[in-house]
Specification:
seven-stranded mixed beta sheet; 29% helix; 282 residues; four-stranded mixed beta sheet; 31% strand
């Protein structure tokens, strides 16, 4: 195993041959697998399914009407087991983060439609002289996605109606009991993007990455039940775990690699350096 293997897992969804474009108002917003396209056929008053595309029907002329039309379809599909844990958290659906959204969609349904999704990932770290230590979280065993895996200290999807730093502050409080006065000083350090395929879903995701330096005496505590605990580990130990195992959730491994590069832990002497850099920005 290697760090490059972690990047390859992130970017395993480059072939869209088994998928149909998801079209809204003449724009391709995502990709729908043929199996899920078949599940949309009974909802012909909302979706038009053909051999070539899945299209949101005409007649829903604004953000609200489109969102309201899609919601009961998603609830019905959720009852049929198509999604993994309804969150009651709406994501914007559009062509890009800075573009006007066409509608909003329940978070858990987004991968089935293969539309771009966004989130925030926060590296919580401590300085000990010249050494860096990272707070690493472990996901709860009953979490509906990637249970028991290692995670970044704070991470969360980007919902409708919340700014990026607002989301960092919210997630930091819920996941690690970080006071707002500390979380509000988290530094935006870039974005990571990938196209991942899993369970017949395409995930063209972008993660906005933040670094948050913490006081030495701060110990994170989970408050929302989504994490089972935290460990403070030397950064080189985190790099070894990331390289030598698949313990980290796949996109959290990418955030780790970005941290190693930016902080000079992973240097240009590594023969995979350029390939890793490119793989973080698909």
């Amino acid at each position: 195993m290697s760090l490059l293997d972690r990047i390859k897992v992130c970017n395993n969804g480059m072939d869209v041959a088994a998928y149909a474009p998801f079209i809204v108002e003449g724009q391709r917003l995502g990709w729908v697998h043929s199996d899920f396209a078949s599940a949309l056929k009974p909802f012909e008053d909302v979706f038009l399914e053909s051999d070539n595309a899945v299209t949101l029907r005409d007649g829903f002329n604004d953000y609200r009407s489109r969102s309201d039309a899609v919601l009961p379809v998603l609830r019905s599909l959720d009852a049929d087991g198509w999604f993994s844990g309804w969150r009651d958290e709406a994501y914007p659906v559009g062509t890009g983060f800075y573009d006007e959204a066409f509608l909003e969609m329940e978070r858990t349904a987004v991968p089935r439609f293969g539309v771009p999704a966004f989130g925030v990932h926060v590296n919580g770290f401590v300085r000990d002289g010249d050494d860096l230590l990272m707070w690493i979280a472990r996901r709860a065993d009953d979490k509906p996605t990637y249970p028991g895996m290692l995670d970044n200290m704070v991470a969360g999807g980007q919902p409708v109606g919340l700014g990026l730093l607002e989301n960092v502050i919210k997630e930091a409080a819920e996941e690690a009991a970080v006071p707002a006065e500390i979380a509000g000083k988290a530094i935006p350090v870039g974005a990571i993007s990938y196209q991942h395929e899993e369970d017949n879903c395409l995930k063209p995701d972008t993660m906005f990455v933040f670094d948050m330096e913490l006081p030495k005496d701060f110990v994170p505590t989970n408050t929302d039940g989504e994490l089972s605990g935290f460990k403070l580990l030397p950064v080189r130990e985190v790099m070894a775990i990331t390289a030598d195992s698949a313990e980290f959730k796949f996109n959290c491994a990418a955030v780790n690699i970005d941290f190693f590069i930016r902080h000079g832990i992973l240097t240009p002497e590594d023969p995979d350096y350029i390939t890793l850099q490119r793989g973080l920005h698909q």
